[in-house]
Fold this protein.
Amino acid sequence: MRIYIGIDDTDNIESRGTGFRARELGTQLNDEGLGKLIGITRHQLLFDRRIPYTSHNSSACLEMEAENSNKLHQYCANYLIQNSADGSDAGLCVATYEMIGSEILQWGERAKKEIITQEEARELALTAGVFLEGYTGTKGGIIGSLAAVGLRKGGDDGRFLWIPGMREMEGVFDAEFIRNKTGIAEIRSVRGDLITGDEKVFLGSWWRPVMKNHKIVLFVEPNKLCQDESCKWQVVSKDYIKSISN
């Protein structure tokens, strides 16, 4: 069973961010045998001074394969209660793939464009039958956590904070090796060329695939950094990734 776990607003200005918490939580869920972590995405929501946020107003979504969503939300709830920073407004959403209908997809898109309320979030979650709860502060993180699952299922938003092998891989690799190791569906140049087979790609210390058209896609550009003359491609810059995933 495919399950999405949305978390938001777990941090304060001095603590580790929500992305770090999402990765730590996913590791623990794996280690506890509660499911298999598939990937974690970051989703940028409306950046507006009227909205309380720590730094960037982003939320995270963990995609899991698991048999029991109740055990997942119980574990996640305990994790957020124990690990959310002082002053945070942590929220949690847990939903199976089938539960996330068009209304929640639309909620995710709205959260990127307009100010929306906790009351609306709770009503929508209740109607859809998804688990949604806040744990610290004002509990405002329920807005972003519900948006995260909607945006993740929508399949055309966000960049990956974690997929298998991503945090360990740095250097030059064949395109096919990268795809097999990580589960990336496509490696494409900024011009749209499909990079395949033994074409070599230089992965720097910071690289992030993005979600495009329900696929995990890694974007690359002609190599300027790596001294290996056989290496034709390098991952695109951080600024480029941010520009296409916000």
